[in-house]
Every structure is written in C-alpha cells, then in structure tokens.
Write a structure and sequence with these properties.
By secondary structure, this protein is an alpha/beta fold. It has two domains: 20-71, no CATH class; 80-367 and 377-385, Aldolase class I (TIM Barrel). The chain contains 19 helices and eleven strands. The longest helix is centred in the C-terminal third of the chain and has 20 residues, at 404-423. The termini are far apart. The protein binds S-adenosylmethionine (SAM) and iron/sulfur cluster.
Amino acid sequence: MNPKLSATATDFIDDAHLTGLAAGPAPERARVRDLIAKSMDKQALAVEEAAELVRADDPELVEEIFAAARTLKETVYGNRIVLFAPLYIGNECTNDCAYCGFRRSNPEAIRRTLDVDEIRRQVSALEEKGQKRLILVFGEHPHYDARFIAEAVRTVYDVKVGHGEIRRVNINAAPLDHEGYRIVKEAGIGTYQVFQETYHHETYARVHPAGTAKGRYLWRLDALSRAMEAGCDDVGIGALFGLYDWRFDLLGLVRHALFLQERYGVGPHTISFPRLRPASGVRLDERWMVSDRDLLRLIAILRLSVPYTGMILTARENAELRRQAMTFGVSQIDAGTRLELGGYTEAGDTQCMEREQFQLGDVRSLDEVMRELVVDGHIPSFCTACYRLGRTGEHFMEFAIPGFIKKFCTPNALTTLLEYLVDYGSPETRAAGERIIAAELAKLPDDALKVELVARLDRIRTTDDRDLYF
Ligand code: SAM
Ligand code: SF4
C-alpha cells in the first residue's frame, strides 16, 4: 500500500456503473415527482436517483426540475449569497493539464510567485474594496508545500486596513499528505478545495499526462479523505465541466459527496462546477462543451441531490448566467475578481491571457455585483461566524436545527452587509442595501433577537464597532 494514501483509500468511481446510469431510460413523470418530493424533505438522493433526474430530458420535466430547485432554494436555503474573492499566490506548475494556462508546457505563461510584501499589498487592496473572505490559489510545485501555504495564510490574516480584515481564508491547491493537511489546518484555513476535474478515468488520463503528479488519479480522488483523516473536515469538491459528458461528472460529484458523508460522517462543505474557459495556448475540444441550459440543469439537479452543501459558481460565467444560477441554489459567488498574479493592484482594465489561468466571464466590481444582488432581493453576506465560533458543519445545521437560519444566518448576513455598505459601498449601493435590510427586518418577529439585531446594526452605522456576529 502507498503509505501516503488515506487509511482506506479506494477508487470508489465505477465508470461502467456511472455510464450505465447516465444512459438508462427516461423516468416516468410520477417518478420524477417522487424524487423531487424526497429532496423537498431535505433527504439526499442516491446516485441512482440523481441519475434518474439526469435522464429526465423531456423539456416539461426539465422545467419541473428547475421549478423544484427554485422552490427548495427559496423555502429552505433562503436568499443569502456569500461573497468571496480568489487570490492567486503562484502559478509555477510542474503539471501539464491540457486545459490550463499554467501548464508547464505553455511557453507563453508569465510565471510569478507573490512574496510576503506582494501578498500584503494584494490583501490590502482587497480589504479596501470590502472583501472579507478569500480563497488562495496555487499551482502545483515543490515550492508550494504545506508550510508555504500555511505561511501565506498567516500573512493574509495578519493584514488589517481600517475596518478591513480577512476573516476566512480558503485554499485551492494541490492534494497534500496527512501531515500537510495538519500544517495548513494549524494556520487556520477554512475550506480546502481539490477538484477531481473529471471522474472519468480515461479522460482523466488523457488530460493529465502520466509522470506528472496530477496524473495519479487515485492520489487526487483520495485527497480529501486524507484531509478528513488529518482533521481538516471542511473540504470542497469540484469537477471541471467540458472535459467529459456532464451527466457522468455530475454523478461522479454526487458519488464523491456520498462517499465522504458515509465514510467520515461529514459531506463536502462546498461543491464547485467550473466550466471550461478559453486559456492561453489551449485548444478546447468542442465535443463535451456544456451549453448554458445544461449547466443550469446540472446546477438544479445537484441542488436537489445533495442537501447540506454550499454550491459555488465563479466569475468564469457571465453576469446573466450567474444571476439565473443563483435562483436554482448557488450559495456562493466571487466578485471583483482578478486572476492575474498581482492583478488587484497592478492590472489595468483588460485581461491578459498570459498572466492568468483562464479568461473570466464576469469582470464587474464587487460594488456592482453587490448592487445587483440587493436589487434582485438577495442578501449578500460576508458571514464567517460559524467558522470563527467552531460551529463546523454549518450547512448541516442550517437544515437540521429548526430556526438556525433565522437565529444566526440572516442576522449575520445583515450585519456583514451593513458593514460593507457603511465602509465601502457607493451611495447607490448603500441606498439599495439599506432598503433590503429594512425589508428583511420587517419580516422578523418582534422578539429579543430582533431588538438585539437592530441595536447592533445601529452600532455599525454610528460607531467603529465591527464584526458583531451571532
Ligand atoms: N493547481 C491546483 C489544482 O490543479 O488543483 C489548484 C489550482 S487550479 C489553478 C484551480 C482549478 O482551476 C482547477 O482545479 C481547474 O478545475 C480550474 N481550471 C483550470 N483550467 C481551467 C480553464 N481553462 N477554465 C476553467 N477552469 C479551469
Ligand atoms: Fe497546474 Fe492546477 Fe493548472 Fe493543472 S490546473 S496546470 S495543476 S495550475
């Protein structure tokens, strides 16, 4: 046995089984309704059940799935959207992923690793825009070991400008071994994300050359199991859609989520479903491209299949698609995003493909995105309370504990929104944001919690008190 794998490392992806499931007969309408009813009852679907929703191709059934995801989102998850920004720390990479601008065989890529001062400058700029939650992104390179990542995390937490501070640092980096996860956990990371890219073995081998670290399918599939065993139980899974059949990779994600839940008693904290974007020197294979409608379908099916899980949609997608996707259950988005190394202080307004991993679809500022969210009736949130209070499994608690959202999530969303509006919002965004705060307060019962919330909101408006979480 390879000692660096998890204690019980298994390849739990059975290609023949998932392929068969994705291609079976379309389900009856009554069956789709039964599955929807199960989701509405906040129960996870089995992979076989999720596959039935995938096979429901009939346009009317697809509309029912969209409607169900929308209802589930509205009635159970509420109207909060968590905001974050990515910060690329280094793009040196020893892998050669066929789809990525950072791959080692790309001579056009401009390589760079931010030093401590450069990280501090980027973080200051992000704080000055109002960001509170970051995800640090790294290529895979011996320089970027667990200690290096931990140091970067500490540097970020250390930067405080005015009322600005980063309250949660997530990571998207190469798989680590058990000791590595212990080191990054010690630095206070939030979620550790590793995307499998594609669960389909043959495609995986085609786009990740043998002889590179990423060429080892099981090492990567087992990555978050090792994290769990090392005490990092806040993990994010993902698949890069466009490499292979979206139906198969959607089922791979559901299988992975259920595997972690069954084996470790905790499912993934988040699921990401990035769609392949143009990148420097990359020729995209059109064959498995996912249409906008199929992307929305897969988001709706994931929402119905995997409860207790945050769903992330990044600025790879354009503003209009992100807007639609939010109604189907996306719970986190990035905003004000720049992908170039050093891009939060150095770049102009245009994107430079040689400096970034792929091209963005939504380049609006944080303030513009905040304004659209509040005008559309969402509550943008920078809440980090559960993580800071050691309340792990927050998505589970949101569902399992009656009243949890009302008692904690909504008040924390409103206080963090108001902090943004007072400290960083443009006059138009502040006015629209104050309207949604008033509307949300009007929905709350007149109890002690509301009195306390109103008092804290007033403190944020009239004093320098911040970070007043419940
Ligand atoms: N290097 C680490 C890795 O590969 O896991 C972590 C960072 S990598 C820069 C983050 C993610 O970007 C990858 O997991 C992949 O899903 C995504 N990505 C790579 N190339 C992309 C492209 N052309 N379009 C969209 N997403 C891409
Ligand atoms: Fe390197 Fe990650 Fe890009 Fe692959 S996806 S080339 S591992 S940065």
